[in-house]
Design brief:
The protein has a single domain (11-230), classed as Class II aldolase/adducin N-terminal domain (L-fuculose-1-phosphate Aldolase, 3-Layer(aba) Sandwich), CATH 3.40.225. The chain is α+β, with helices and mostly antiparallel strands. A hairpin with a 3-residue loop joins strand 5 and strand 6. Helix content is 36%, strand content 11%. The mean pLDDT is 90. The structure holds zinc ion. Zinc ion binds at residues 90, 109, 111, 153, 178-179.
Length: 265
């Protein structure tokens, strides 16, 4: 157990962030109805805060902090009074992954259509564009999203264990005919990462429908790798979170365009 420091967000702030992440994922079409979930570590404890199922569930597009419950990482059991909110079935994707990866602070499991269509049809995520959305292209260039070999929902620690091994060196894994699991250091990072991954998948899927597109040239791949080895000025604070919240507050029920809304860097 780690000590809580004053700089860390409060439980209420984290619950709010989890709910906002759910709303963003729904607005961009990565989840529908009440399926899919977002979680975050509760600082200074062995618990996580995760979106559960409220008695009246309007779905993730309308997720509220009150639908975010506290669950123990060690036994995946609810902790304290969570009201009428029920724990989700695929809880071990979260609890066991937090135990497996102590550096991870936030996890998303979603069922995005682009990834679903690509994995169902054997369409590999390839680097077929660059300047349009470099962060999405890099997932393909560096092969950062391995594919799990099963498509069932994972309801037990035994079913989940082989899946965890794919996270030894990765922050995102594709589940064919099912969805994605994405990890990150914060709710903001993991939300942006999930949007970027789905954006890559949607573009690859649409290019496939259009007859297929070649990879970018070897010359361009080599140049991008060279640029990535250059020292950078550091990560932009907050990433695209503020932009995503602005799109959310704008009020559109869904934002389904390719490219999604996560490209602010
Ligand atoms: Zn699932």
């Amino acid at each position: 157990m780690t000590q809580k420091t004053s700089a860390e967000p409060t439980v209420d702030e984290l619950k709010e962030k989890v709910a906002l992440s759910c709303q963003i994922l729904a607005q961009h079409g990565l989840v529908k109805g009440s399926t899919g979930h977002v979680s975050v570590r509760e600082p200074g404890t062995d618990n996580i805060l995760i979106r559960g199922r409220p008695l009246v569930d309007k779905g993730l597009r309308f997720a509220e902090p009150s639908s975010v419950m506290r669950v123990g990482v060690d036994d995946a059991q609810p902790v304290g009074d969570n009201g009428d909110v029920e724990r989700i079935g695929e809880i071990y994707l979260h609890t066991d992954l937090y135990r497996y990866r102590p550096d991870v602070n936030a996890i998303i499991h979603a069922h995005p259509p682009g990834v679903l269509l690509c994995t169902l049809n054997g369409v590999k995520l390839r680097p077929i564009f660059s300047g349009f959305e470099p962060s999405a292209m890099r997932i393909a260039l560096y092969d950062l999203a391995p594919v799990f070999d099963r498509s069932i929902t994972l309801h037990t620690p035994e079913e989940t264990a082989p899946f965890l091994d794919l996270f030894a060196n990765n922050n995102m894994v594709l589940m064919p005919g099912h969805g994605i699991v994405v990890t990150g250091r914060s709710v903001e990072e993991v939300t942006s990462r999930a949007l970027t991954l789905e954006s890559l998948a949607r573009i690859n899927w649409l290019a496939h429908l259009g007859g297929g597109a070649p990879d970018i040239s070897d010359l361009d791949k080599a140049e991008l790798r060279r640029r990535d080895r250059q020292p950078s000025s550091g990560e932009r604070k907050g990433g695209g979170w503020d932009g995503l919240i602005a799109i959310l507050e704008h009020g559109a029920l869904r934002a389904d365009a390719i490219g999604l809304g996560g490209q602010f860097g």
